Predict the 3D structure of the following.
Amino acid sequence: MAAKVKEIQTVEEFNALIFSGKKVVASFYADKCGSCKTIGPKFEKLAAVKEYAKIQFVKVNIDKLPDIAKKFVVTATPTFHAFKNGLKVDTLIGAVPAKLDALVEKLSKL
């Protein structure tokens, strides 16, 4: 069964996940962002990779949850943040598939 990308619904849900001790990759997006739609399927595929099973992949709609976007200084979409043990360990701004691969690979080895 393929892993599923979770859509974050509340600030509390996001904070609980980040501070749960899990490795997390968060995709910050906006509904009207064309680049977000372009890289979305790549993000979904990475979530399904067996070697990344211990990483939680989540999406955060910055229009619906602006407080999270503000807290993590998301000024452009898409933006990807990698977290481990509540700490942000890497960031990617933009829809660059190879760099997204590298971000996830780096997080998997931490």
User: Anything to note?
Assistant: Residues 34-47 form the longest helix (14 residues). The beta strands are 6-7, 23-29, 55-61, 79-84, 87-93.
